[in-house]
Amino acid sequence: MTLKIYNVLTRQKEEFVPLQPGKVNIYVCGPTVYDYAHIGHAKTYVSFDVIVRYLRYLGYDVLYVQNITDVGHMLDTGEDRILKKARQLSALPMQVVETYMRAYFADMDALGVQRPDISPRASGHIPEQIAMVQTLIEKGHAYESDGSVYFDVTSFPEYGKLSGRVLEEQEEGTREVVRTEKRHPADFALWKKADPEHILRWPSPWGEGFPGWHVECSAMANKYLGVTFDIHGGGIDNIFPHNECEIAQSEAAHGEPFARYWMLTGSLTLDGVKMSKSLGNSLTIQEALRRWRPEAIRTFILSSHYASPIDFSDEAVEAAYKGWQRIWGAVTLARQQLRTAAEGEADPGVLTLLAETKAQFLEKMNDDFNAPAALAGLHELTRQVNILLNEHGPHSKGTLQAIDALYRELGGQVLGIVPDETDSGSRASAEREEGLVKLLIELRAQARANRDWATADSIRNRLKALGIILEDRPDGTIWKLE
């Protein structure tokens, strides 16, 4: 089955055919670094992390570009987000940028999100943005007014084709303060004149100023991926005006299509309510990571299709965490048994089970990166693996290696929820955990031999409270994660 992607631009699912065979160029709108990243950012960037992982898994040479917005993203009041935060902290704007950009990457690292190949900053690409604005003026798609430059939306008949908005229905005041120098209420700023107190400013042919929010993505995507590239990603909240403006200015400047496939992640709410600091229900990634393992958060995000809305709640994350624990328990048990397993070929029946699981996993992922369905396949595999490892055995090294390899491949390489124990820290931690549990099992066995049932039951119950189940068998006691 070939990979199919739902293209927001055409509103249909299409077979994915990259511009260059074997190569995929993808651009995803990155964060505006004026505060700590929140769980909504996690939803978008974990989703695209899995998308990029899967494209690479399929053998594509992927060039992944994700920008950092550090200038030009304006509030509805016309105030730059970075400058507002700088005033609040009595800091320089670039201090704000560095602080929150580093925090963003630390959050992504903690969530297992692989870093983009290129993370260009808007402030580092002012010449490219000025050049694009000049091109748009020369082609009659933009005009200068009192030191600012605006895109003339009436010059681009297809404006609104991504979001489906009709130009005549546009109202004034979308995303920026309406200025009298604009010819049409929907015209958007490509370059803004800097007021005397505005710190972030650069020289330009129209006087000192700063770029508008939208032009940065077009300029940087063009610089690193070309005039036309394969996939443009981002969150659904930015479909208008940001993504719409990107298309208009890019295609007006170059006369060629901008992105061929548009993929947008669904929104995230907290307990059914849209996140808002004014409502006090904003949850940062750092706060979430203090409460849950990163794999639990990733599993929660992947339990919903990337394009679907999702509601973040304690109960939902706890349910995802328990599901992940079952997967990790099976993986841990297989790796434990592998350490003492005898040499031997893999069991043909197990190989058939693994092959069927992999085929179903690929079928689901090829259907518009359907991670929830693919994850469900891993849960079903886990159910059968637990039966196999707990009720039948011992198993050959070949069988256990095949099980472990598939979890590493699908759960680790693609979904990023199965840790790789080849990392020295992970292995040491796992060995310490196993050693401590075995010590408690020995102490419990001694208590039982002494007919100290209260101590034996206490050890068993306290381990169960930690998610560790003891199972007594004729040949001894084994343990597994709940």
Named CATH architecture of the domain at 4-265: 3-Layer(aba) Sandwich
Radius of gyration: 27 Å
Strand content: 5-15%
Secondary structural class: alpha/beta
Distance between the termini: 36 Å
> How many helices in DSSP terms?
14
Helix content: 40-55%
What is the mean predicted local confidence, pLDDT? 92
CATH class division of the domain at 4-265: Alpha Beta
Overall 3D shape? elongated
Q: What is the fold-level CATH name, i.e. the topology of the domain at 4-265?
A: Rossmann fold
What does the main sheet amount to?
4 strands, parallel
**What string, H for helix and E for strand, traces the elements in order?**
EEEHEHHHEEEEHEHEEEHHEHHHHHHEE
Regions with little confidence, pLDDT below 50 for 5+ residues:
172-178
Let me know the CATH homologous superfamily of the domain at 4-265. HUPs
**Biggest β-sheet: strands ordered side by side in the sheet:** 4-3-9-10
Total DSSP E strands: 15
Tell me the layout of helices and strands:
Layout: E1 4-7, E2 12-15, E3 23-28, H1 39-57, E4 61-66, H2 81-89, H3 93-110, H4 126-138, E5 142-145, E6 148-151, E7 188-193, E8 209-211, H5 213-225, E9 229-235, H6 239-254, E10 259-265, E11 268-270, E12 273-274, H7 285-291, H8 294-302, E13 310-312, H9 314-340, H10 348-366, H11 371-391, H12 397-414, H13 424-449, H14 453-465, E14 468-473, E15 476-481
Parallel strand pairs: 3-4, 3-9, 9-10, 11-13
Antiparallel strand pairs: 1-2, 5-6, 6-7, 7-8, 11-12, 14-15
Helix pairs in contact: 2-3, 4-5, 4-6, 5-6, 8-9, 9-11, 9-12, 10-11, 10-12, 13-14
